Amino acid sequence: MLHIDKCTLSIRLSELRDVRELIMLDHLIWTEDTAPAALSWRSSEDFLLHAPPGSQLVALIEDELCGYVGFGCPTGMKSNRHVYEIHIAVHPDRQRAGIGRDLMEAVKELAAERGIRKLRLRVLSSNLSAMSFYRKCGFLEEGRLREEFYLGGRYVDEIFMSCILPQASNRQEDERVKEE
C-alpha cells in the first residue's frame, strides 16, 4: 500500500470511511466551471458504484481529507489495460500548496508499480489553471474536441492530455497480465 508523509500531509488509498468527505469535495469542486455539468451524487451507494474504495488516492492533512486523485482503466479491453484515466481534485482552501503535485507524483508511482504505462485525463479549455498544472506535471495535449460543450454562454473545447510513464519492467507487466 502506498503511503507518503510530507510534513503533515499523508497520501493513501481511499477507504470506505472516506466516502462522505469525498462526496462533499466532489460537490464543491466539480461545477460548470470545471466540468461539463455539476456533479451531484444521489447517495453514498451511487458514489461507491463509480468510485469504490481503493480507486482513489486521498490526501489528508492531520486526518482532514483535502484532495484526491481517482484512477482506473478507461475500458474493459485487455489491449487498453496499460492506461489509467485520472481525475484530480484539491479543496479550494488547500490549492496552490503542492498537494496536487504530490497527488500526481503518488498516482504516477502507484501506476508504475502496477505496470501502467500511460496516464490520461480530460480538461475543459476554459480551465486554464488546470491545463497549466497538468503541463507542469508532464502531461501533453493529445487531442481536442472543438466546441464540445456549451457552458456559460460560450462553446468550450474538451482537451485530452496524457503522460507516458517510464516503461514498466517485464516482471510487473507479466504479473499484471496474470491477474487478468
Automatic annotation (TrEMBL):
<dbReference type="GO" id="GO:0016747">
    <property type="term" value="F:acyltransferase activity, transferring groups other than amino-acyl groups"/>
</dbReference>
<keyword id="KW-0808">Transferase</keyword>
<dbReference type="InterPro" id="IPR000182">
    <property type="entry name" value="GNAT_dom"/>
</dbReference>
<dbReference type="InterPro" id="IPR016181">
    <property type="entry name" value="Acyl_CoA_acyltransferase"/>
</dbReference>
<feature type="domain" description="N-acetyltransferase">
    <location>
        <begin position="14"/>
        <end position="166"/>
    </location>
</feature>
<dbReference type="Pfam" id="PF00583">
    <property type="entry name" value="Acetyltransf_1"/>
</dbReference>
<keyword id="KW-0012">Acyltransferase</keyword>
<dbReference type="InterPro" id="IPR050832">
    <property type="entry name" value="Bact_Acetyltransf"/>
</dbReference>
<protein>
    <submittedName>
        <fullName>GCN5-like N-acetyltransferase</fullName>
    </submittedName>
</protein>
